[in-house]
Design a protein that fits this description.
Length: 100
């Protein structure tokens, strides 16, 4: 007997490495500072978002938790740039995310 199942989890609490959240009907709607699970900005690179770049996705190995929220970055370099002025970069990223 052969048993198969779908390994992709469509719950918003699961892994989102291949999901863009825009086309997945099982995800909740985004708020001003969208969090799927605990990832800010729909898991886009927080530093890039603070610069007005909406296209760069963050990676699991470059994430950082701060005040109960998780920020994702596309590289260690972008993570370090973001952390040089955390509050300013969070405010800028929040504004760009809201205005997108």
């Amino acid at each position: 007997m052969l048993v198969t199942s779908c390994a992709h989890n469509h719950g918003w609490w699961g892994s989102h490495s291949d999901c863009d959240h825009m086309n997945c009907s099982d995800h909740h709607q985004c708020s001003e500072t969208c969090q799927h699970g605990d990832g800010m900005y729909d898991m886009h690179c927080a530093y890039s978002m603070s610069q007005g770049d909406y296209d760069l996705k963050g990676k699991n190995n470059y994430r950082w938790s701060h005040k109960g929220k998780t920020y994702y970055f596309s590289s260690e370099e972008n993570k370090n740039k973001f952390m040089k002025d955390v509050d300013k970069n969070i405010n800028k990223a929040d504004k760009y995310w809201k205005d997108r």
